[in-house]
Amino acid sequence: MALLHRADLTPSKLELLNAWLPTRSWYTGPAEPDLAKVGAFRLDDPAGAVGVETMLVRAGDGPVLQVPLTYRDAPLAGAERWLIGTTEHSVLGTRWVYDAAGDPVYAAALATIILTGAGQAVEEFEVDGVRQARANELQATGSGRAGAAVPAVTGVLRVADTDPTLIATDSLNLTVIRVLTDDPAVPDGAPTLTATWPGSVTARLLACAG
Question: Which domain of life is it from (predicted)?
Fold first, then answer.
């Protein structure tokens, strides 16, 4: 479950990404994009300390891009390379926003949803002390099975910041597709994460493990 806040962010997530995306080798859009949000979903951090969100964005009529993010209340030691920027949250204060490829909390959450066949986190707001679920038209689902063993991920060892992005952790390897296409290459038999959203004709591959 992801508890969200009705809050203002300065700068906004899209403003941060407008500046950051053109610095990525796998981005081929305009130098000054005006990104639109296609959809987003959350993953659970069991400790409840780190926000984990995957955003799907598009520049004009370009392809849909996958940008996983983590939100922290303090800098992540040794992760300066993955810092996208900071934003002021009107409820939580300063938040450090990271490209989640370099964050072990994201790697652990991604491995869990892929290998256990789970869905994304339920998103809730608290209004006058009452929790209210927020509907999400984007649905992300892992291909694994309920109750499957998930290797513990405690560190990210290497990241190939390409498309696809390859994340080597201390227990398994993960692949994250950045530019979403209709027919990405998937290793035979690899457990996957796919998603659908309004306007998508078929489920799109987001990530795989193995």
Answer: Bacteria
Stated pTM of the model? 0.91
Domain positions in the chain are 2-209
What percentage of the chain carries pLDDT values higher than 70? 88
Rounded Cα gap, residues 44 and 123, in angstroms: 10
Q: Where are the alpha helices (DSSP H) in 49-202?
A: 104-116
Question: Which of helix, strand or coil describes residue 153?
Answer: coil
* Cα 134 to Cα 126: distance, rounded to the nearest angstrom: 10
CA angle, 49 then 52 then 55, to 5°: 155
Beta strands in the chain (DSSP E): 2-4, 9-10, 35-43, 51-59, 65-72, 83-89, 93-99, 123-127, 130-133, 139-142, 156-160, 165-169, 173-176, 192-196, 204-209
Condensed to tens digits (0 to 9), the pLDDT of residues 153-187 reads: 999 999 999 999 999 999 999 999 999 987 666 66
CA-based nearest residue to 206, from 71, 109, 104, 67: 67
